[in-house]
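=== RUN LOG ===
request id: a7f3
mode: sequence -> structure
chains: 1
length: 668
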Amino acid sequence: MLNNGVDIQKRSELERLTDENHVLKTLLRRYATYGSQWSFNNLETDVTAQLHYTEKSYNMLFNNMLAASFCGDIVYNDDGQPTQTYIIVEANTRFAEFAKLPIEEIIGKTAEQIGVCCSKQWSEPFLNTATTGNNFCSEIVENNCIYKLNVFSTKKGRFCAVFQNINVKAAAETLIKQNFSFLQKTIDAIPTPVFFKDTEGRYVMCNQAYSTDVIGVEQENIIGKTALELSKYFPREYADLYLEKDIQLIKEQGVQVYEGPIKCADGETRQYIVTKKLIKNYNGEYDGILGVMQDVNHIVRSQKELAESENRYKMLFNGIRQPIIVVDFDGNIIMINSTAVELFEDSADISRPTQSEIPALKLINKDALAKLSQSDKPITTRIAVEVSGQERWYMCTMQPIDDFFGERVVQIFANDITEIKRYQSELIQEKKHVEQANNLKTAFLANIAHETRTPINVISGFVQLIQQGISEEKRRDYLNVIFSSCKKLLEIIDDIVELSKIETGQIKVRHEICSINSVLEEAFFYLQETLREHGKNLNISKTPSLPDSESLVYADGQRISQVFKKLIYNAATYTSSGRIDIGVNIHQKLEFFVNDTGIGIPDDKLEVIFEKFRQADEGATRQYGGNGLGLSIASELVARMGGSITVLSKTGQGSKFVFTIPYEKANL
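=== RESULT ===
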């Protein structure tokens, strides 16, 4: 909420006194820099650069001082003797306000001509300082006002005077003390722990809920100390954490919210949400850290107390991290908390709530307000609001309440449910994936049942024929068929076992010397045997053998051969005519390829063929066979070896599978 006029006035007095104190300290520093007293009184013997620098510095000082200040030159008579008359040569804005004249009407005139600082109690210290170089610091009483006067010489015959009305200062200090006492009593009325630190981590203020309930000591034992100096009242790791969080907040210059357990004075550990924010002073500079602690264990009770206590509601209004807007039944904004202003980056004037550019207005549902005017039942709605270019969802609860004046208003309490909606969407997607996976597994089990039943039936049938007695020639043929079916059955079991090892992390990749030529020869032989078993007559080829110096590398030859065979078996299964080419190229990585002229893969299936239990055409299982695990196992093995696998394919024209594996050259 905006400060009223009294608050702004009080704050400006505090800031003005602080700035004047800073100016006086600056005067002393510059005085020490320019030299000792004698160097000011004997500038004729000093260097020109020092005089120029001194005068330039004082000129800047006059223009920036908040206390009234001016420089004057003593007027000498015909005999060369100084008089108590002086001409004003420099003056700042504060002195012009004191004299009630523009600066241009002051410069070059005497004190008598402008009617200020012309009595002896002013002119005598001016004359004495200008001629002797002795500084003057005392109080002057004039017209029932007490002035603190500081006079010093800048060069012979010239003086500089700085004065301020200490009556005003004393009154301001009294007012500040009263304000501080009122502020302390006010924050002590807040049940939630509140504290304020300076930017160096020293406690400036805290309420009783923080000092007594959390720390367990009186407030005067906390003020002026850092968390590290109070570590005897709570574990040292808490103090280190507070210091780390403060440093992070000052660095990021935003609002900091974190949650964690805090051991309180009664020995009980409670879960708190701590909200911290950097506070700026009247000059817009960061002055300290305001912290509000929220007991999550008692948040329901806190909300009830918030509704019951008008004073507590007002004090906690800006400490709550959810956006809160209070409106009348016409939708005009009465109050809006700082969280809502910051969250929606609202720089508009909330005193004109009809402005459409205020993003927070989107949280106000006019139809719901009309219903609330007829009923006291809360209304909850979901609203999408664009925040920083991104869509966010809020659950807005609109509740009629009585304001501080007893008038009926509506409080809108908004909770950000963007993450919840995102989780819901993710759960829906996950459910779809699970259902899809279950369907795939069901199809896989049916496929496995079909794939295993066929060789088992073959084995069983031919064993029965052998038992009935047959010729030796047929016996050999039947045994070959039985062997082939057993081999097929073992391949299915091997794939299932391999998949189980992959999913349980039992696959180990070896780093040993292997021959790429041997891997290629073994793969080519496997291709020939596979085509023979399928009864297919295709053109096949392989790349030429590599020189021995290039063929020997450090890699897992067994796993490479396993992947190579999976891709070859896939090509042999789905290629009925044409050719199959295999090979290897060595660049920065080992690059193996299998190129076929088979049925190809549709573009929309290229993303799923490496998934478990998937085939480009789910109906192809019956026509071509296969259990849907080969390419999935190949992809997983390549990934375990730190490589990658890709496929290029066109329907009806064939496919090219390429997998690359990192290696190290074997220097023998």
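=== NOTES ===
The first strand starts at residue 68 and ends at 76.
Residues 519 and 560 are 8 Å apart (CA to CA).
=== END ===
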